[in-house]
Design goal:
The protein is of the alpha+beta class. It has one domain. It has 7 helices and 4 strands. Strands 1-4-3-2 form a 4-stranded antiparallel beta sheet. β3 and β4 form a beta hairpin. It is elongated and about 65 Å long. The termini are close together.
Length: 153
Amino acid sequence: MPRQEEVKTLLTKMNSAISPDSLQRRLDLAPYKSSKAWPGKTFLLVGNSYNAEKRVRGSAKKRAAAIAAMLEESHGVYGKRHCLTLRDALANERFVATLSRFEADWLKREPDSTLIGPAYDEQGNLLAESFAVWRRLQPAIPLTVSGARGSAK
């Protein structure tokens, strides 16, 4: 049986491996930070949207225009960042009309605390036809030895 110190060490390592800081370090958020589109440490970048239907003639321009207009209207709404709440984004009919079925279904399943913002590639170029999805991180509940199953004697 593992000793109590070994269990504590293991739990500490597991907790730090899944901490928000370790997740944020793995992503290069510099383009979002320099563009004032980073909502802060309490949010995790889930990813950027990608619409496979963009080959439809003219739809890419309409989509880019709808995303740009929605984000411009939201300027300063969330902490002076170019982000807005998911609820506000889904209330924007022009934006919703440009979503693929997958995107619409995905966003409807996201928590209300999720934010939508501009999307950037690794080089910091704006992806006009995409948007970034930021999920609010839940406060970490520290793992304790007493919370582990069985006795740690």
